[in-house]
Specification:
about 260 residues; about 0% strand; mainly alpha
Length: about 260
């Protein structure tokens, strides 16, 4: 797959670059460029990211960072079985538990929420950092909802991190998930309160909490561009109708 000229491979994380040092220099550069493309495209063009991940995987399947990138690219394309296999491979290579939450979420994607809950109660969770533990809590709550256990999902999300007034990278998503669970359980007033709190914490627009809040408040957003197009079409239709009327009207000389 083509690599843009502005991609050098030096953009990758230093830890990944260190992993690639086990490869011949030219090969390492090619792999690095493909990994950069995966990271660049994974949010806006997941299919493209997946394609570059497959190239990197073909070139260096024994590098943990490559297996991890391939896992996230597959995950972004909802290829959960493939993603889980790549995450497991990366975990075997590194021995770390960092991927445990996303592996559990793959189990959800495969229709196995019970397995995700088992993973949420495994000893590996205690080895996760705070961000990882919050992510695991989100996955567990999602698994509860998959099983129709709305009240249990709400309780799962209730935690010191949710109650804290400090804003962390996970705060907006945690508050949003809690609000969404409350709304699903029919607790609209509380849901509105927590969507508002999610908006306060969502500094980078990672959720659509503001839209959900507006929806609860009965606010309707109008697409100004669409309105302009409709107005233009109405004007054209009116002009056409007027023209047709003029064409149809008899001239003075044709009157009886």
């Amino acid at each position: 797959m083509p690599i843009p000229e502005d991609v050098t491979g030096d953009e990758i994380d230093k830890d990944v670059r260190q992993e690639l040092q086990s490869l011949p220099k030219t090969l390492a550069e090619d792999v690095a460029k493909n990994l950069v493309m995966v990271a660049r495209l994974i949010d806006e063009d997941p299919e493209g990211a997946y394609g570059y991940s497959k190239v990197a995987l073909r070139l260096a399947s024994r590098v943990a960072a490559v297996r991890e990138a391939a896992g996230f690219a597959a995950y972004a394309n909802q290829k959960y079985g493939e993603a889980l296999a790549e995450f497991r491979a990366a975990r075997r290579m590194t021995g770390t538990v960092d991927l445990w939450p996303v592996m559990a979420d793959c189990e959800r994607g495969l229709g196995r929420p019970e397995k995700a809950l088992d993973m949420a109660g495994a000893p590996e969770v205690h080895k996760l950092d705070k961000a990882g533990q919050v992510e695991m809590r989100l996955v567990a709550a999602g698994a509860r909802r998959d099983m129709g256990q709305l009240d249990a999902a709400i309780v799962t999300l209730q935690s010191p991190e949710l109650a804290s007034n400090s804003v962390q990278p996970w705060t907006a998503r945690l508050r949003y998930a809690y609000a969404d669970a409350l709304l699903a359980a029919g607790r609209e007033r509380e849901a509105r309160e927590w969507f508002a709190k999610a908006v306060e914490a969502d500094r980078d627009g990672s959720t659509d909490a503001s839209d959900r809040l507006a929806e609860l408040d009965g606010v309707e957003f109008v697409d100004a561009l669409s309105e302009d197009v409709e107005d233009a079409e109405d004007t054209e239709d009116g002009a056409d109708a007027a023209g047709e009327s003029a064409d149809a009207a008899p001239e003075d000389g044709d009157k009886d």
